[in-house]
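Section handout, structural biology tutorial.
Before the tutorial, make sure you can parse a SMILES string by hand: atoms, branches in parentheses, ring closures as digits. In the record below the ligand is zinc ion, and the chain has 373 residues. In the tutorial you will relate the predicted structure tokens back to the input. Do not try to memorize them.
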Amino acid sequence: MVGDGDRQELRAGDVLATKRREYDEDDVRVRPGRSSRPRTRTRPRHADAVEGFVIAVDRGRYTCVLSGAGPDAPLVTAMRARELGRKSVVVGDRVGLVGDSSGAPGALARIVRIAERTSVLRRTADDDETTAEGRLERVVVANADQLVIVSALADPPPRTGFIDRCLVAAYDAGIEPLLCLTKADLAGPEAVLGYYTELELPYVLIRPDSDLAALRALLAGRVSVMVGHSGVGKSTLVNRLVPDAERAVGTVSAIGRGRHTSTSAVALRLPAEPGGDTGWIVDTPGVRSFGLAHVSAESLLHGFPDLVEATVDCPANCPHTADEADCALDAWVAAGKADARRLASYRRLLASRSGEGDPREPERNPGDPLAGS
Ligand SMILES: Nc1nc2c(ncn2[C@@H]2O[C@H](COP(=O)(O)OP(=O)(O)OP(=O)(O)O)[C@@H](O)[C@H]2O)c(=O)[nH]1
Ligand SMILES: [Zn+2]
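Predicted structure of the complex:
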């Protein structure tokens, strides 16, 4: 979503750049000295930068669309300018571009600015603990408005452990969750929705013949990130929402450096609703789940709003674990104020963060077919 608001944001950045320029050491203007000639007005650095929205990242090349450009405008390939230092650029970033932003074959622009992010969706890549890379906290997408959690109602069965994990990630990122329940032709949503009664979680039901109007309305004008396990129907859904998704991804990879990296996120432009704003969906083929090692125990709890209230009765610094005799969460659940399975799920996530056991171990969720991450 690259609208007028963003333009203002970048303009504000321009003003800052202008101010900073007055103190730049490498400023070439010459002091007027005794000469009566007024000193030369210097141009603020990159006043000519145009605004872009990053839709794909592939090995040091960033594919951008220019603000206000229509769906048929050429995509701009850019590299980072050295002055960005160590700042990373990710899909969803709004950036300032200089150089050749024509989008002509072979043209290369430079990213000189990254606008302040409205949200940052992170995950710990803790799927590989053996390497420094694998333990790294990564930004998945910047400036997303919504996390669309795609779960099938059957084949594969829904896993609330995964959904809970996504809810924590959404809360941590400061973006709204939307539960997207696919394969509604195969099973009803009652069990899953029952589990989340306390939450008033927004949801949509998808079957092969549904017209997707409700979902489209929720996606219009926003940047939505889609996550889901393999086989839940995510690709099917993306292809229905963005009929030329295959082509769009192909174009991105052709303009990048050839081979498409299936693990990276790609933003796809949704067909504009009549009279409405374009929306974007960010497909995350490589993100199967969210490592939450970077989320504090307290923030983790906020992914469980149905449990938060109980903890005012916990002793100070209560770890909320099952072996903490005075933890108020047990009484809360015993009193029927929240679902016992939600507490179990919260504690599984707590344990997975501190490396105590494997959260996917079946014996940790006895008799609960919905559980599992
Ligand atoms: N019955 C039914 N089947 C569906 C529905 N949506 C998708 N499928 C089928 O489910 C299977 C998996 O769908 P995909 O779209 O490939 O799933 P995915 O989540 O993209 O999986 P990956 O490609 O592994 O990431 C396919 O055989 C689809 O035809 C649905 O609403 N109902
Ligand atoms: Zn407690």
